[in-house]
Amino acid sequence: MRSNRDRLIAFVMLLPSLILVGIFVYGFITQAIQTSMTDWGQNPEQPPLAANVVKSFVGLQNYQNIMTDTLEFTFRNSLINTFFFTVFFVLGCVVAGLLLALLLDQNVKGEAFFRTVFLFPMALSFVVTGTIWRWMLQPNGGINILPQALLGLPPIQFTWINNRDVWLPFEWGNVPMYVTMLGIAILAFMAINYALSRRWRATQYAVIAAVVVLLIFLARLWDFIWLPLDTPEAETPIAPKGFNAALIGIIIAAVWQMSGYTMAMFIAGIRGVPEELREAARVDGCSEIDVYRRIVLPQLNPIILSAMIVLGHISLKIFDLVFAMAGPDNAKTVVPGLLVYTEGFRENAFAKASAIAVIMLFFVAVIIVPYLWSQLRQSSQER
Amino acid sequence: MKKRLLLISLLVLTFAFVGAVRAQDLSGQLEIFSWWAGDEGPALEALIALYNSQNPGVEVINATVTGGSGVNARAVLKTRMLGGTPPDTFQVHAGEELTGTWVVADRMEDLSDLYASEGWNEAFPADLIDLLTVDGGIYSVPVNIHRSNVLWYNPAKIAEWGVTVPATWDEFLAACPTFQEAGVIPLVVGEAWTVNHLWESVALGVLGADGWNGIWTGETAPAGEEMLGVWNKFNEVLACSNLGADSAGLSWQQAIDKVVAGEAAFNIMGDWAAGYMTTTLGLEPGTGFGFAAAPGTAGTFMWLSDSFGLPVGAPNVDNTIAWLKVLGSVEGQNAFNPLKGSIPARVDAVSAAPELYNAYLQSAAADWGSNRLVGSLVHGVAANERFMGDFNTVMEVFVASRSAEASANAMAAVCITSGACGG
Prior knowledge:
By secondary structure, chain A is mostly helical. Chain A is built from 14 helices and two strands. In chain A, 71% of the residues lie in helices and 1% in strands. Chain A is globular and about 80 Å long. Among the domains of chain A are: 181 residues, MetI-like (MetI-like fold); 65 residues. Chain B is 52% helix and 14% strand. In chain B, α2 links the parallel β1 and β2. The longest helix of chain B has 26 residues. By secondary structure, chain B is an alpha/beta fold. At the A-B interface, α13 of A face α3, α18 and α19 of B.
């Protein structure tokens, strides 16, 4: 009886937040998906801001447009930008955070002071960070004239956010190839791993075979999807695609802001390693470097994972930093979040903006959902 | 429909009573939504002070959202209108930004009766009223006029370099190597929108007023021979600029600073630049800074205008009508414009108080009364917001490819999706 009453009370207590989340999160997600499948703002006959605007269902037309229309290359460039930004931002934060944490773990004097200093940028908003770095990365000032001011060396010529260079060129048509290569690399890694541990089982063979078949099939399918897309762009060489050098300045600013956060996580993780473990390793004749390599770092793996999840979803949704540093109209640094704003509220193309927002949600979900899933499973197993 | 009838009858009643009812009898609130904060705040304050002196019973709520040319304010306004809580009146660029966004959406009240009763049909130029009119209804009251096609320079430096101010783009291109050899940027541009701003002056210079208007009526083909000429000329002009060097990081003020400092020879910018140079930098028009119509556009005035209208469902209609009357009066226009650094939209306002206007504004006002008038694209007059936004994509195609054909084709495609180019 008692447990039933407890459950009822718990349910009643949770109800308000369930209702709010239901309306303001899941309700609006549903509405965005619904809007993205209409022609709101796409039909010149229907003024998008009219009170009684007719929104007709068009299925996946908007998605197809932004993926394939020649003039929608801005959206596809924003996807490429997000990819490179995420990779370098997460990598930069993890490496810089780890380095700072390891340095602070050396019993330096005034450790608390340095910890605060490194953590402090996180207290700023991205808009403040963006404005500061925008000034510092002016082509004719800021850090470009720093070597000149300090050492009398010639100033740096790099134009940062103004830069129009494209590095690591990339073609959508090659995506199947990249996917296949990635699949082969994963398979090779798995094969070596299994060979070393000698734990081959029939099911694993089956899984590997299935993955190979799926990858080949996917590669064919992607071929089919992507190749027609590349033809019009090949005819009118609009813009080279790849890693835009203009992003470097934004990545630096983002890493500057968030590496203190990873540092704090790593310090907590390092402090969580029992001193006995380290002592035992030292007694066994382990050098200090090996103590970190073999004892401390392996214990940090779950922290690295959660740092990557947190940073990953920040970078996929980034808006304010890019808006403050490069403005919404700099085509070289465009990200999906900015496009949702400009397409929706400047051009009144609400359906198109919703489609972009839904694609953003999809990418964030791809990162977050497996993580939440594994966390839930872990906690239910512990119980 | 019923609501509409009610409002119309309410308007009629208002006009009927206007003569009889004393202005002081108005009470309640008036919410004015605009992006005039910061430098432009005092000009709006002057208008509000004038309004309050005539209507002391009304509490004015000055709702501003900062951001140049309303980039942020427009987004906030759209959420309010879609949410069904319009302000009493809001600032909007005259032209397509008003008609193509709000009037076609049936969100604005017709003000043609107010125009008739206040005699505004004669006070404002017909070319201007045309762009506020849809199917016979007039939908907003213009407060000020800015000019887009102005070439700015530093007279002392121009004399020092021994060049004349170019009257055509070909003259400019001929003078370009002289500047480059002297280590001076011939034409300075700033962040993305200032490049679009330059484009409209180049296009007007190449096409002429009729050709420019033809883009929006369908008479000038967006991918035709003439437009290819515009893009080719634009390409040559940009080769004489700082585009790609440090342009993307420069605000329009910083671009003007380079002209004032002599690091750059010319800049094309709207005449808010005159306000910046006289008020903020303390320069005298004519001696501290020089101005001319953009090359090839003498005799044509490419304008943009801020205006206020009456949205459907505004809570305080009477107070708003009184506000619009203040805006459209000679007194109101002369209170606002000298502080804003713009000229009155009324052709008879400057002559009523010429001492309020400096040398630049007087010359602009003279041109406003005599020149051929065409609407600006970048500032919301000539094309709808869809086209304006997609034009950034066209410009990116151009900057990346430097191909006139690719850009013209892209523009033709944008013309179709936005429906902005007539036909």
